[in-house]
């Protein structure tokens, strides 16, 4: 183990946040090197420490692109109008904001940056929760002309200190592709509205970046029933 | 066949309940119950006539099966005829009226009143959404205010002032606070018509010392860094007290009073607009200093009353109901029945009042008082003793 005494508490905190952010992108299906998610505290500090020993968030942003499996998961069913549609996913930009208060100004600057950089979507990690108005913009932003296509997600550093999906009581959530969802509904003769639901604000749903209308398969281990699957419709 | 386990119907504590309370509730109440319906009432039907095609309708999903390896769930139901063999056709204890969830809902005559209520609430929600978006976009626009170069908060340009006042109509005080917050985050003075940056506290400490008329006060740094000057604070809050507390989508009638601004160039703005003339304009007249002071004092009082009235939600300039009630209220004096009597010590406690505790003389003290008397006697008696 590393000698944690020699690092500032903020550095250790930021190291954990950074690792969770990387793990999150990996779990979503982006191309991330496994060892990236396991960066050691010493390596992290040498890369991102300022002279005063505090983490420099401006050097931490990273981007990644979806893996082929992820692309197929987000494939859009072709229609007569659009026989060869683009998958509903693309490159993502993850940024760690360093401002104590984040409001409309920072959020709009960030959106502009995503649009200029041709990113499909973005994740903004803030020190503290955003202002109410910024959240209001975010809520209405999916589809707004000024933002990126895939929208912006916002996390508070606190949310990423621990990777909640690693907790033993959190079952495995697997996103279904459009096709898999259609098969599920067909097989059980269901309409999607008849499925149990999961809110997109649910921590695991946020972690996976679920969008409204998607279906996740939840796999739990049961002592009596072995592996046990259920499905939820994101709302 | 039990109830299908494949679809979790209750808000399960482990799927996400362990870290959120809300999602579980939604799942249990809406998504879950609907599904629960189907298999329950389908089961008796299947027992009665397992070959009936109607039983297919209600087939719930079966546990642990993957969508890909999926034969129809029908065979699993067939073993039921054990009951039929005895010759007692099972009777459903469940209501017959339920229809399979996949069937189209039975067309009920629409209750006109319920429909209207539903439509009313739907339109309220829609209006609310629209107004929230409108407020948001107003704030985004006001972040860039004032639009003219070298603007002066005391003398805003006519177009900026007009737009600002238009923007303020749907605002609630809390929206106005958001505007100030957002402008502050953008390092600007909280007053939308002021181009200056917000004031910088002398240090980065959380609490700051401030010199006021009453001496030094300790204030949050955040409070200190809201405005560029006290004058802007006054002008900005003058707008805030006029804002309507009622959400715009709940307000009655379409008529909205525009808010007033504190400006010093009323001549630049429209005559018809209700702009407040600052008392400084009267100072130029030839009246004596003392008269000016009196006029200013009265004007200040009127302003304060008007502000208070607005804060109470009344229309400025109108005599309020509350005022009338105050005037008509009768004040009755309590009339004394007997002539006043000077206070006097009661007979009982008079002699030992110094021992009394709230009028009561404890026994122990009473005895001591008697002892004192005895002692006096004793000394008297002593005097007779020579020596
Ligand atoms: Zn100012």
From TrEMBL, chain A:
Record key words, sorted: DNA-directed RNA polymerase, Nucleus, Transcription
Which superkingdom is the protein from? Eukaryota
Q: Name one GO molecular function term.
A: DNA-directed RNA polymerase activity
- Coiled-coil region: none
Query: Key word Transcription present in the record?
Result: yes
Boundaries of every RNA polymerase subunit H/Rpb5 C-terminal domain copy:
162-233
Any one GO biological process: transcription elongation by RNA polymerase I
Name this protein carries in UniProt: DNA-directed RNA polymerases I, II, and III subunit RPABC1
From what organism does this protein derive?
Lojkania enalia
Automatic annotation (TrEMBL), chain B:
Its EC number is: 3.1.3.16
Q: What is its main location?
A: nucleus
User: Which controlled-vocabulary keywords does the entry list?
Assistant: Hydrolase, Metal-binding, Nucleus, Protein phosphatase, Zinc, Zinc-finger
Q: Does the keyword 4Fe-4S apply?
A: no
Any one GO cellular component localisation term in the record: nucleus
Gene Ontology MF term list: RNA polymerase core enzyme binding; RNA polymerase II CTD heptapeptide repeat phosphatase activity; zinc ion binding
Compositional bias per record (Acidic residues), positions renumbered to this chain:
370-379
Cellular compartment(s): Nucleus
**Family of this protein:** Belongs to the RPAP2 family.
PANTHER family from the xrefs? RNA POLYMERASE II SUBUNIT B1 CTD PHOSPHATASE RPAP2-RELATED (PTHR14732:SF0)
* Name of the protein this chain belongs to: RNA polymerase II subunit B1 CTD phosphatase RPAP2 homolog
